[in-house]
Amino acid sequence: MLRSLMAGVTGIKAHTTYLDVIGNNIANVNTTGFKKSVTTFQDLLYQTAKGATAPDAGAGRGGINPMQVGLGVNVAAIETIHTQGNVSYTGNRTDFAIQGDGYFVVKDGGNTYYTRAGAYVLDAAGNVVSSGTGYMLQGYGMSQDPTDPTKYIQGSTLGAINIPIGQKIPAKETELVGFRCNLNSSVPTYLASGFTPVGTQQKVTLNGTQYTVTFAESAGSPTATATDFLRITFDGAGGLNGTLQMQLDGVDAEGNPVLSIGAGSTPTLAAATTYDPNTGLLTVQDGTDRWEMNLWDNLDMEYVTFKDPTNPNLTWKVLTEFDPAANRMKIWYQSDNGAGGVSPVPMAVFDTLASGAGPILFNDDGTFRSYDSNSANPGIDPIALDDGAGNTLDIFLVANPSGRSFLIQPSDGGTPPAATGETLSSLNQRISSIHETKIDVYDSLGNAHTLEVSWEKTFNNEWRWRAWLPDEPGIPITGNEGLITFGPDGRITGTGTATIDLGFGAVGAKDTTVTLDFSGKTFEKDDLEGVTQYGSAFTTKGYYQDGYAMGVLEDFAVGADGTVTGVYSNGKNQPIARLALALFANPQGLLKMGETVFMESPNSGVAQIVNPQEGGAGKIAGSSLEMSNVDLAEEFVSLIKGQRGFQANARVVTTGDQVLEELINLKR
């Protein structure tokens, strides 16, 4: 029998398979996630008619090549090509496409399959399943991180992804509120604060000796006296080691404090010091070295004058300063008879705390309470002014309707005047130094309440914060004020957090403790991301709170990292699950199981389950599908090649048949 006849038969069989593969590719040109196949041919065994001989130099004969006749062709392999197909946007929220490496993991009972087909639907139970097959898409559940409510933790067990549309989430009370951005360091204090460098220090070298210069007001409240108004201490090993004691003698025509070097100063330091009462410049000189400070520029005191209501020829001249740490107000005063005569110097001082009158009280929003004998502030005595020259005046500080200033009103027999009584002058808060912001917080029933927080600059690098519920004064709130401090780098020092107690039990909910975070550290952020104090505009606001009302799951979306985020009716977006992707060492070794799914094979390697965009896996394109990677033009060319190959091999068979026929005809 002719070998060519059998070779032609193998060619026909091989090209039949080739055409089968091409036909299957073309049939699946529109199959979502389909991966085309290619056919690889190889020749069959060879019959050796004559073997090869080596060259023989002694005999003068060259080598002879072998003589072999081939026996046909065979299909060596049918390989699956796993190249990326085009991604087409569908707008269907349950369609997912993989851009890059990886396979969706789906299950059918106990069988695990892998696929690039991302056409899914929700079944009646809310499970995400493959359209047409019901294979259940696999992934990981997500839960809120108990240590950081801004983050969610991925579960460790692979399971079916369930999206329970219509499911409710209960209301959650607010437990954490975060603030960020900037408080303007360039504004003045919101109330006159006295000598602003108090609490700071300077380094100065005089005549070769280095001194540390520190500042303090008086000998310390509540024993403040005008003769010991301000202390400036030089601490060093030189001859100027000691303290300058500045005395407050009065107020000049422009409202500037009249100061002098007091008798309690260290003599050697006082001898090296000069003070210009016309400019406020203090100079300490030792040899050719000098240290200067303008005291007027560093004294922040509010100056008011008013006529004595019982003696119009008598004018009271008053300097005030506020101590935010103790809520005390110091009132330095003297009288002027209008003819140039003043009360005996130095000025007298009335300390609201030391005198027994009590501290200055504020409402929750930082406005003044009326400083009088009433139920809001019981036991407050009038402020008694006595110039030492027989002139006395009792006054009350009465908050104006806005609460942002005190009206100075005369006492009427030791009782405060009526609200329409005579006003002598006023002491005002500096509104430009107060910044306020609002944020909604939630009680345990999901009711929203407006929380307002303000910051008031009390001193250099120090701010008082206050929190209150402006629309619900009937809800008690405690612990709702405090101080935060900043370093010279504009960042918060200390913990930067505080807690307030909100009495929501008054409206039927649970009483709640809320942490206010000004530093950003609670959210694992750098303190630069929290509240800062730089010379820029006020921008501080609440940027996060962890409470919410009851909500119903209405929609969902998938992110590039595979996170399925639920969209609730209360505006909350909450991660529900995360898709899983499988990677294989040899994807071409996967077994095609039909229905556009694969299974592991001994040559594919074990599936490595990873998250999208991790470990070399691709990303997820939501509302999109990956199309088949079949190229019709390429397949049609291959179809022509297969057809011609089949025809050619068929001609070999018919030619062999004709040769055999001629051989048989030799006998005729």
Structural notes for this entry:
This protein is mainly beta and 668 residues long. It has five domains: 3-82 and 629-665, no CATH class; 96-167 and 577-625, no CATH class; 176-188 and 434-545, Tick-borne Encephalitis virus Glycoprotein, domain 1, CATH 2.60.98.20; 194-299, no CATH class; 302-429, no CATH class. It is 10% helix and 42% strand. The strands form 14 sheets. Strands 7, 8, 11, 12, 13, 14, 44, 45, 46, 47 and 50 form an eleven-stranded antiparallel β-sheet that branches. Strands 15, 37, 40, 41, 42 and 43 form a six-stranded mixed β-sheet that branches. A hairpin with a 5-residue loop joins strand 9 (120-122) and strand 10 (128-130). Helix 1 runs antiparallel to helix 4 (632-665). The mean pLDDT is 89.
Topology:
Blueprint: H1 3-27, E1 37-43, E2 46-50, E3 67-70, E4 73-80, E5 87-89, E6 96-99, E7 103-108, E8 111-115, E9 120-122, E10 128-130, E11 136-144, E12 152-154, E13 159-160, E14 168-169, E15 176-184, E16 194-195, E17 201-206, E18 209-217, E19 230-235, E20 242-251, E21 257-261, H2 267-271, E22 273-276, E23 281-286, E24 289-294, H3 295-298, E25 299-300, E26 302-308, E27 311-323, E28 328-336, E29 348-351, E30 383-386, E31 392-399, E32 405-410, E33 425-428, E34 434-442, E35 448-459, E36 462-468, E37 477-478, E38 481-486, E39 492-493, E40 497-502, E41 512-517, E42 531-534, E43 541-545, E44 551-558, E45 563-568, E46 573-579, E47 581-583, E48 591-592, E49 598-599, E50 608-610, E51 619-622, E52 624-626, H4 632-665
Parallel strand pairs: 15-41, 15-42
Antiparallel strand pairs: 1-4, 2-3, 5-52, 6-51, 7-8, 7-11, 7-47, 9-10, 11-12, 11-13, 11-46, 14-44, 15-43, 16-25, 17-18, 18-19, 19-20, 20-21, 22-23, 23-24, 26-27, 27-28, 28-29, 30-31, 31-32, 32-33, 34-35, 35-36, 36-38, 37-40, 38-39, 40-41, 44-45, 45-46, 47-50, 48-49
Helix pairs in contact: 1-4
